[in-house]
């Protein structure tokens, strides 16, 4: 026997999103009869999740995976771990959450009626978890009548395929050697900045986050101007879900100091191809042109970073300014000196794979959906959560 059961549920998304109280509707299917010693397959079908997708972001296809616990009671008792595949249609903002069926197995150890009742479950969306627990007593959804001469001392035994763990990330410490600022005596054209560790405070759809990322600014002289290239060094994170083409774009306002003042806009192209689950997102160098507005020694420091991904924006502001590159500049007509030097560098065409630079660690990043809301992992580095205050 199987029946749909409905129960009130309290769901806790990752930090920054308020809890949700809703109604979960579930149907459990299992064999109506079996014998002691049999291992039976059990299926948990969601007919309604406790909440809809919040009005924050469209969830891409195959980005949501459920797992949960089924309670066995009666002739034998115990917990049966359940897990489902990461399979779902694209879910628009405000749309109904569509969760895949979960499966598990139960070895029957005693004769009699074994009742199966849904309990807590977890929704893993693009690498982050929303935990949902019942707030009322839940009725059994299925009953197995077990026959045969098994042991009359019941012992719980539940097993299942893999239970997903929340996706994590780590950022190994950067390792690179700064190159000295060039001398102008030989009139060099290429200038290599030092790697600086920039502490960012980021405002994301999930609130304020802290992160630190190693950044390097390089320049190539082009007449009286400089073509800039900003690189993020050895930040590592793999994609926990499929990321569609044309959905991740970084940009930065490089801060000008010293003799000159203002900012230089640099940006990278949108990702030209889809990125599969488990693959790193490789973001190219951010490009732009610096036209000096003053003569003297001018400095370039990583500035405000903007990540646009999957319809959301995350703005990251440096907690302090650290100089990566110092240049000897000559004032140019229409140069920076207090304003934005020029609009920078990249169109929305082009790929992420070949940036023309292979001697630095590729920036690896992604947008994470927290529960059903996006959290960009800086889209360039791993966020370290900060306690939310109000």
Description:
Residues 67-76, 129-146 have a biased composition (Polar residues). The chain crosses the membrane at residues 365-384. Keywords: Membrane, Transmembrane, Transmembrane helix. Residues 67-91, 129-191, 327-355 are annotated as: Disordered. This is Gram-positive cocci surface proteins LPxTG domain-containing protein. With 390 residues, the protein is mainly beta. The protein folds into two domains: 4-159, Immunoglobulins (Immunoglobulin-like), CATH 2.60.40.10; 184-385, no CATH class. 0% of the residues lie in helices and 47% in strands. It contains no helices and 27 strands. It has strands at 4-12, 20-29, 33-35, 39-48, 64-74, 78-83, 102-107, 112-125, 128-134, 142-147, 158-159, 190-192, 196-204, 207-222, 225-232, 248-258, 262-267, 282-283, 286-290, 296-309, 312-318, 325-329, 339-340, 363-364, 367-370, 373-376, 384-385. The strands form four sheets. Strands 12, 13, 14, 15, 16, 17, 19, 20, 21, 22, 23 and 27 form a twelve-stranded mixed β-sheet that branches. Strands 1, 2, 3, 4, 5, 6, 7, 8, 9, 10 and 11 form an eleven-stranded mixed β-sheet that branches. It has a two-stranded antiparallel sheet with strand order 18-24. A hairpin with a 3-residue loop joins β16 and β17. It is elongated.
């Amino acid at each position: 026997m199987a029946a749909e059961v409905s129960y009130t549920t309290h769901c806790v998304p990752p930090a920054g999103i308020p809890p949700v109280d809703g109604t979960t509707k579930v149907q459990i299917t299992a064999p109506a009869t079996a014998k002691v010693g049999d291992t039976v397959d059990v299926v948990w079908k969601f007919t309604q999740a406790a909440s809809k997708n919040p009005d924050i972001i469209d969830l891409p296809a195959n980005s949501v995976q459920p797992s949960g616990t089924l309670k066995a009671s009666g002739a034998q008792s115990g917990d049966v771990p359940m897990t489902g595949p990461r399979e779902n249609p694209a879910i628009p903002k405000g749309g109904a959450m569509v969760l895949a069926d979960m499966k598990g197995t139960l070895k029957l150890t005693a004769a009699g009626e074994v009742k199966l009742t849904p309990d807590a479950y977890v929704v893993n969306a693009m690498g982050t978890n929303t935990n949902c627990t019942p707030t009322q007593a839940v009725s059994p959804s299925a009953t197995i009548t077990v026959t045969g001469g098994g042991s009359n001392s019941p012992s719980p035994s539940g097993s299942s395929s893999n239970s997903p763990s929340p996706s994590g990330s780590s950022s190994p410490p950067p390792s690179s050697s700064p190159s000295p600022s060039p001398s102008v005596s030989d009139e060099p054209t290429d200038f290599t900045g030092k790697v600086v560790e920039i502490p960012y405070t980021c405002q994301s759809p999930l609130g304020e986050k802290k992160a630190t990322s190693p950044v390097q600014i390089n320049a190539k002289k082009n007449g009286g101007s400089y073509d800039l290239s900003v690189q993020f060094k050895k930040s590592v994170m793999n994609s926990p879900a499929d990321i569609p083409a044309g959905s991740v774009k970084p940009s930065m306002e490089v801060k000008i100091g010293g003799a000159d003042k203002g900012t230089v806009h640099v940006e990278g192209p949108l990702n030209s191809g889809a990125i599969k689950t488990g693959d790193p997102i490789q973001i190219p160098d951010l490009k732009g042109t610096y036209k000096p507005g003053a003569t003297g020694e001018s400095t370039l420091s990583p500035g405000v970073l903007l990540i646009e991904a999957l319809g959301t924006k995350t703005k990251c502001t440096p907690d302090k300014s650290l100089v990566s590159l110092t240049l000897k500049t000559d004032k140019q007509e229409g140069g920076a000196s207090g304003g934005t030097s020029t609009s920078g560098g990249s169109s929305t065409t082009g790929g992420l794979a070949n940036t023309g630079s292979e001697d630095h660690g590729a920036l690896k990043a992604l947008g994470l959906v927290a529960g059903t809301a996006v959290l960009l992992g800086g889209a360039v580095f791993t966020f370290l959560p900060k306690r939310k205050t109000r």
